[in-house]
Amino acid sequence: MAKDYNAHIQEVVTRASAMQKALVDPFRTDDGSFLIPQNRQEAEKRNQILESAIKDSIFEMAEKSAPMIAGVCARALQGYEMQYKRQPSMELLASAHNAIENVLRMSNGTAKAPGVFEGAEMSTTDGIIMRDRLVSLVLPVYLTMITSNMVTFIPGDFNQSEFFRIKRQAGSSFGDLKKGQLIDYNYQGVYSQMAQRIALGPGDGSTKSWTFDSNTTFSAVYPLKPKRTRVWVDRKLVASEDGSGNIVGARTVNGTAYTVTGTVNYAEGKVTVNFSNAPAQDVEIMLGFDVDIEKDPTLIPRMDHVMDSRVLYPHESAINGNATIQAIWALRRELGQDLDSLTMQSLRNVLAADKDKTHLRDMYAFCPEEGVEWVRTKAEGISLREHYETVQRALLEVDSKLIKANGVAGLTGIVAGTEACNLLRYLPAPYLDVAPGFRSTAQPHYVGRLYGSYDLYCDPYAPDTWGCLCYAKGPDHGQTAYVAGDAVPALTFRHSIMGDLVQRATMWELAYHDMQPFDGEDYLCKLTFVEG
User: Fewer CB within 10 A of the end CB, N or C, for the chain?
Assistant: First the structure.
């Protein structure tokens, strides 16, 4: 299992690095920005850099179309960085790299097309042209999707892919943990620290002496370090060990004078504590000590990583389009439009929106019903500005709710319904930093950065116009609500023209789009704007 997981992580790093090496690094200027041609000479220089950068990359498999495909991808990455002020995740780049490689291998015969198109012909001139256009859109589609920042991308195999989850657990018993116990966000014990503290017990008005035996308490002999043993009464230090095995000290606590003596057996991990007068009822008595791991290195606590996995299977998407030869000719003759070119102009946005809607539909369906509400009606006695500032209080409540649910990450971004988004857009700077060149569209789209911390998106088709889908995304692999990735990105397969003179084409895709199989719903939370 560990080998499989490490291989997966290495694949992600390798593929993402290959994309960065070909599409990002060569176009960086000294100040870190992208090289943007300002004239024909600079454009030619950029093309030369591109042709050199894609050597020995997957784009070379596209032969003459390689510069075109890579150029489209590079410009998409540049636009993404200008909008979001950051580069996409390594997982996204690795998934796009894998999808592009799969298509190019299918078309050059080094890999068989899966599913219903296993025997499809992809080597014709028209087929290659359409392939190249669609391949060039793989990365731009990923970058245009609003859900690209909400999901875990995986390099998708044709038949199935494995999704991993790592858990930390105690590899040995020490301190507060027993061997095999999970070390997760609920863990509040002391495991790695050699300084331990235990309760000897509350006073009862008659007991004057207490003993501690590490072997009895921890089922192991803990050698003790000299000068580290201490005694507290009601959390006030009253005695310490002198380095020779003797506990001595005196102090008045809450009006009662205590003189404390005792002994420490370093090798056997035993302590005896004696009070001159018995602590009263419910007086708290604590003992602290340090474990001497030099005397027994086998006591050093160990943390093990246990990997679990789930198998995910890709889903097919297909749609058939027909047009008569007469209609195609009429479009070209009368309007000067090429049907293929017309389709390609909007294909990127349509594909991205379709993927977004699929992902969002699932997340809306599986988002926990219990969420957070914010009263959108202004209370009397406060200004409109003060009222809208209270939105941040609701967002912080969502943030806490998400962290408590998944134990990894708080609020990362918000997908708002139309009415909720319009209200949030009313917020002035610096509460909302609107994306450069922002324009509302009929498709899910990015709006800007809210309160300097959260990405804000608008979904015109959200099931609740006053609702928001709030999501968390952790720093490590798989810490999201959703898993996505293309095994084969959307491709168009043309069919032979029969006697009815109808040109038929089928667009087909093989992709992964599922809720994260371990605890995906814990990374989602609803925020609803309600009337007071």
Answer: C
